[in-house]
Amino acid sequence: MKSLVVNCGSSSVKYALFDMEGEKKIAWGLIECIGLKEGFYSRQTDKTPKIKDALEIKNHTQALELIINDLLDKKTGSISDVKEIAVIGHRIVHGGNVFSEPVISDENSKEGLRKCFDIAPLHNPSNYEGVLAAEKMLPGVPSVFVFDTAFHQTMPDYAYMYALPYQYYEKHHIRRYGFHGTSHKYVSQRAAEMLKKSAKEIKIITAHLGNGSSLTAVKNGKVIDTSLGFTPLPGIVMGSRSGDFDPAIIPFLMGIYPELKEPNALSDMLNKKSGLLGIADSSDMRGIIEAKSKGDKKSELAFKMLCYSVKKYIGAYFAALNGIDALIFTAGIGENSAPVREEICKGLEALGIEIDLAQNQRSGDERFISSANSKVKIMVIPTNEELMIAREAVKTLSNKK
Predict the structure, then answer these.
(1) Of 148, 225, 296, 325, which residue is the catalytic one?
(2) Contact, 356 vs 333, CB < 8 A?
(3) What structural domains and CATH numbers belong to the chain?
(4) pTM, rounded to two decimals
């Protein structure tokens, strides 16, 4: 059985084709700058090297047509007939309060997805356009919506509610939703396997640290809290997002800087010009660490702010979980930055968290980096959201049958 994973952004399509027998990725690629003249298409397979072409692609339907034709190519393709694709798994950013688990695409689920447009206007319409394009190109092949927010739907109401007038929740469903759910679910399940325990009997904190970042508290396989909220803005310091801050700062700044009252200006400042970028003029942690080592004070400040914000959430979730069995680092920074992991774990010995400096410096795939004396297992687990989406799509399809 083959599962095609499709992730449509506003101007991009990322895809991966899996042979689910052995869960092997056999083809993958990325189309960017859709609708612009400077577009490009890069792809490769498990048997062919990477190919990258510059080309102009008008819309998502044309992009999917290009991908399908490439998968069917007699010389470099990975399938001989589209019927080999049993299911398409679509990454959908926001399921709102409508979806708490993956669903098969039909008129009802499409209507539910359209209802979530207002809550995620930058992502969900593009995700939906990808669904329509895939169904046009692959008629008869079932599509499954896999939501970034679904894994977090087990949070109790006292964790997901905001202390705003209740009418805003009733009328507009304003609450904490959380994101990166597919990543948190994958690494939490993999952590249980590495610990040789059932996911239903462990308590863990998963730290997805990348350009966008979030921490999640998972108890017995279910999320009880997560750092992102109604949008992906709050929580820890991120690449270009502010993370938590006093919301009263917004009207204060708007009174000083009239330009912040312009449409999208405030959102752009908080989402695209803040975080590491706002402090250190860079959102690249590797560059920040290098600049810090050369004495750059703003880079050192940005580094410490990020690590300190993560440390605070670990402490909070440790309390919420009443102790943990494991702390997991994943995503670009979490997987690759030994200095960040070391700084975060420094001073958490009272919680039973003690890092092994030598193991932390070692590069590689999934591994334990906790010391022999650490009561909490510290782990690095590369995330695999595409595989998780493929799994969820196959599972959802099987459940229907």
Answers:
(1) 148
(2) no
(3) 2-147 (3.30.420.40), 193-385 (3.30.420.40)
(4) 0.92
